Amino acid sequence: MRLLRAESEFDAIKKDPRHAYAIWAVAGIFGGHRFYLGDTARSIAMLFTLGGLGVWTVLDVFFLARRVRAVNQERRATVMARYRILDAT
User: Fold this and answer.
1) What are phi and psi of 84, to 5 degrees?
2) What keywords are annotated for this sequence in UniProt (predicted)?
3) From the CB of residue 84, how many other CB atoms can be counted at a distance below 10 Å?
4) What angle do CA 75, 39, 30 make, to 5 degrees?
5) Cα–Cα distances in Å, from 12 out to 15, 22, 66?
6) pLDDT score for 54
C-alpha cells in the first residue's frame, strides 16, 4: 500500500521531457525550461544573459532529456525515502 501511495505521489510531481522541450522552444533563451526543472540559479543566469547569448540555449537542447531524467530520479528517491521504501531502480 505504501508503494502505491509513493508511486502516486511521484507521478504527481515528476517532470515530462515533452513539456521541458516545449518550454525550451518558447522561452529557452530566458531559461524557462530551467525554471520548470527547478534549476533556479541557472535560470536566473540564463535570464540575465539571454541564454548565455544563445549558447546555453542551443546546448541545452542536447542535454535537456538527461537533466529531466536526473531531476526525476532525485524526486523519486526523495519520495521513496519519505515512505521508507528502498528503491532499487
Assistant:
1) 55, 50
2) Membrane, Transmembrane, Transmembrane helix
3) 8
4) 140
5) 9, 19, 20
6) 94
As given in the structure block, the three cell numbers for residue 68 are: 529531466
Return all residues near 3 (Cβ < 8 A) that are at least 6 apart. Answer: 83, 85
Amino acid found at 31: G
- Give dist(CA 18, CA 29) in Å, integer: 17
CA distance 53 to 67: 21
Tell me the three cell numbers of residue 63: 542535454
> Taking 70 as the threshold, does the pLDDT of residue 89 lie above it?
no
Residues 6 or more apart in contact with residue 71 via CB below 8 angstroms: 15, 37, 38
- Cell numbers found for residue 3: 508503494
Domains of the chain: which residue ranges? 2-82
Q: How far is CA 53 from the centre of its chain?
A: 22
Asked whether the beta carbons of 63 and 71 are under 8 A apart, the reply is no
